[in-house]
Write a structure and sequence with these properties.
The structure is a homotetramer of 316-residue chains.
Chain A lengths: L10 E11 L2 H11 L3 E6 L2 E5 L9 E5 L4 E9 L2 H6 L5 E3 L8 E5 L5 E5 L31 E9 L2 H10 L4 E7 L5 E7 L7 E5 L8 E7 L3 H14 L2 E8 L6 E6 L5 E6 L13 E3 L1 H4 L12 H4 L11
Parallel strand pairs in A: 1-4, 5-8, 9-12, 10-17, 13-16
Antiparallel strand pairs in A: 1-5, 2-3, 3-4, 6-7, 7-8, 9-13, 10-11, 11-12, 14-15, 15-16
Pfam family, one (chains A, B, C, D): Glyoxalase
Protein name (chains A, B, C, D): Catechol 2,3-dioxygenase
Organism (chains A, B, C, D): Winogradskya consettensis
């Protein structure tokens, strides 16, 4: 895939996200105790949580819902003018906690998204004020100590269509992809700035729409992920696979399932960034993927079959 | 300092740099054996070296010169149009190894810089071909294993003037700064994309022009830096200070002097990035800096007195 | 110093220790929140705390006392017969929580010690039961996550005399030492098994008796110590020096002061062990020590002047 | 299994080992380039290699032989008297490079062993002299940087018999074991001092005798093992499984096959030691092992089927 390096990057980063869970308080417990987020706001059906180095007022909203899954993904525009340049807006709302006016739309697979410019800054209080003023809140020193939301990996019934949407409408750039034997994309990794990726679309084997593969949080070190594995082990959290290193994007990873059923990744990319403005998309074939992950780990079956909400595969 | 978030980011990243050294082969030995760069090209008076994850054909050029110091810093434009938008060019040259046409200029303190768009990709050969095709060369597994050039810290006789140049001409954004009691800046950290910083200017206490404080290389982990300290210890490399963590920017650091006398930093920022497009410059006062580095280390005297080329302070 | 390799090693390891503190609850807060110990027992004037991988029922007892300092150090014999072989016992007591009969004595500098064989095993409950049955309690995932007590460093007015006591009476072996220009020992590191050291005596510049330099806790990684530095920073704990690496014994260290004033070390030795049964004592001279710690850090002044209880130096 | 804590520990540590390889120079290349050992001696059919923190003159001898496998394992006695106490000696030889008189014997499965007291110290030369005199040689800063040989895991046709030999004759202590449904041991981990284990016997499913499961080298950190995985990946070394953490003994591990076919483990135990002189053997059942390794990794098939020399299983 090619992109125009001179096209302005109108989306700065992925912002807060909403997750649905059938067990709100259990999910909250996982995010607070294991991932080390902090509860910062609450309403009748949801809880707002913050990662310690997010400059914005909240990072994840957990919403009580019959089935697990992903709600809205908010994206911050790069500036007021960038916000105006973005096309395809369905409607504008002003009732989102911590954000100013949000322009809502859906991707071609039905995932809800919202772009915004105005946002409230996180304000630490006496219990989490950091010693160094260049971080949002004190380092929690608890559980996985995730620094920030890193990326969202969506399932989609039509990778090429959502991929085109990301490239054409949002101006995201495809850094790596999996191509099927027929040459079409099976999964695509897009970035918004210099991170290796921010938004990922993976083919949904069930043909369903609007589902989630996982959301991921970044840690500062691989050691935090190794320790998080011990924390999950003792806390009875389901470890799906890892820790190991992906061949694609070389991310060091651990996948666990939060109590509501959503897959959560802890990830670390070391100092790897995509600095080249004309980075050429890396394509991985079936043969290459047959080698397994970077150090040879075979991909676990559930990685291909579990998504939220859980749906029966077609024909069963 | 404020900036316009909608202003396009016309410089993508700092590119290769030139360093002067009075002891070319000794300096080369340090960069190859201790930092783990690879020699990729050589001419009569200089050696071109490559870090294993640089997508470009070379990262550092060591040039034999009577005195240590910094030569040209090359900056890659974000695109062909971005290159055209940059003002203040002195002349264009086409004789730089591995780069296309380069637009040359100097900063207000006399440091030479060059902006370019066309660049040659690094091509691994049979001796350094990586197993994973999303990295430029095989992981060296030697010395400090630095992944890439991270930033350049220049000494300047006039911080406000060079700072204005970075902001106004290059469109760089100031993420953190040290302010003197009179409110003027004593040191400024600017970034070009989402890294915490790429270009730094520090006040030159000697009043001299065009000098270097240090260049820095990024490692994937803090552990690589701790091990590098052992490698330097056994190799007889002068360790100036560290490993420790800066309060400013929170960079984990180690400072050593290469055989030519130039100060070299090994640095790691964990997963810290500046994602906010309207990040407000963090200012550090003298009182705040009196607390020392993040964990209390007092700044070593030579950090304020050593630069290259070495010059006698005024009045002595 | 020489020792007879065939002499049985009658002391297996240092056991629980008692610390005095003028601020019992504040000290308890530090040990629980920052070091990650767990309160397991309490009486009128003291609190018993446990590190997560101690097989015994408690690790540290904090005792309310007007002045900070060290109380008894308990040492576990290698077996019932080993216990009988140890000479120089003052009296036997059976009222120590979690221990069987204890043979009490003092070292030549007046530090109280007790040797025992019978000991209660730690029994995890539903809130700290580990997933793997080969560890005593669940991994806390909180603060510094110290695994176990590592060593005690005593101040003494007479290093040669206490050193002889360690060697002759306890059968400990000197692995490293600092020698003064007159050839006498200024500090001595002794081990009881295959660890690099367990008991250390450092000359007390004040001439006082029975004081403490520090007690140390082992972490699994250096990364835990780097993170602990951040936890201490945000918690307002006084960081005295580090993280850095000692030249002597090569221990990676961080020194902090707990709220009661006692110096606490977090330490990691990597995979370093003393396997040679005829290890020859390594001696460090003043000239060698002038190079600073392993990577060049100069020893901070308070490291030579602070001990507990705090006493005025002689002649002042 | 019980042991008498008062029985002296007559074996201090496992000493150098011999490995057979059909491709001597290729195996040497792996040990030097990937594991970072150093060639220190050579004769017609073998090469002697040294790990950087081994106080003895050599660590591994690679011997050209038609089939891969393990040769002699040398064990250092705890002292001259300890050497005399050891029974069951077949003969004494004095022709082993770097060692004094060696008392030879075989374990019940036919593995050759030798116990010795006199040993030559490693002497660094100008190319590997360490800056700190408490380590044997300079830190290599190359490949996996293994510090020392950690343990040997033998295959045996009769675990109970070899286990009794280890306990009764050598005085080793069983720290953990796998028990079959009939209560007999399938694998046993024994230690000689305070390490978690030094000698391991695993049931040989082929019924053959004298074979090797793997030898292991200790690294200082888990990060060294993660990096070693990258080094092996780029060097084309076969990674069998890992990095991951064993449930048994909690060792962080990576298993690779050296060019001769012998399985090599890189391992790290953090600060875990067996300090209790009356440690009770931990027994793992089939049901417990069905949970996989500590974080859930399923044991790879070849782990149960590959040993050296390679032999066809019975009945095929």
């Amino acid at each position: 895939m090619n992109h125009d390096p001179d096209r302005p990057r109108d989306i700065a980063h992925i912002g807060p996200v909403e997750l649905y869970t059938p067990v709100l308080e259990e999910s909250r417990g996982f995010f607070v105790d294991v991932l080390s987020l902090r509860e910062v706001h609450r309403d009748d059906t949801s809880v707002y949580l913050h990662t310690w180095d997010d400059y914005q007022s909240w990072t994840v909203r957990l919403i009580q819902r019959e089935q697990a899954g992903i709600g809205r993904t908010y994206l911050r525009a790069s500036g007021p003018q960038a916000l105006e340049r973005l096309p395809g807006i369905d409607k504008r709302v002003s009732d989102v906690y911590g954000l100013g006016e949000v322009s809502l739309f859906t991707d071609p697979d039905g995932h809800e998204m919202g772009v915004y410019w105005d946002t409230a800054r996180y304000e630490a209080d006496d219990t989490d004020r950091p010693a160094l003023k260049n971080q949002a809140a004190a380092y929690p020193g608890r559980g996985a100590n995730v620094r920030r939301l890193d990326h969202v990996n969506y399932l989609t019934a039509d990778v090429p269509k959502t991929s085109a949407f990301l490239a054409d409408v949002l101006g995201a750039r495809c850094t790596e992809q999996i191509v099927k034997d027929d040459g079409s994309a099976q999964a695509v990794w897009f970035n918004l700035g210099q991170k290796t990726y921010d938004l990922v679309y993976t083919e949904d084997w069930t043909g369903a729409n609007g589902r989630l593969h996982h959301i991921a949080f970044a840690t500062d070190t691989r050691e935090e992920i190794l320790r998080a594995a011990d924390v999950c082990l003792d806390a009875g959290v389901h470890i799906e696979t890892g820790p190991h290193k992906h061949a694609i994007q070389q991310t060091f990873f651990l996948y666990v399932w939060e109590p509501g059923g959503n897959r959560i990744e802890l990830c670390n990319s070391g100092a790897r960034l995509i600095l080249a403005p004309d980075w050429e998309t890396i394509s991985w074939t079936r043969a290459e993927r047959a080698k397994g992950q970077a150090w040879g780990l075979k991909t676990i079956d559930t990685f291909h079959t579990h998504g939220t909400p859980v749906v029966p595969p077609p024909g069963r």
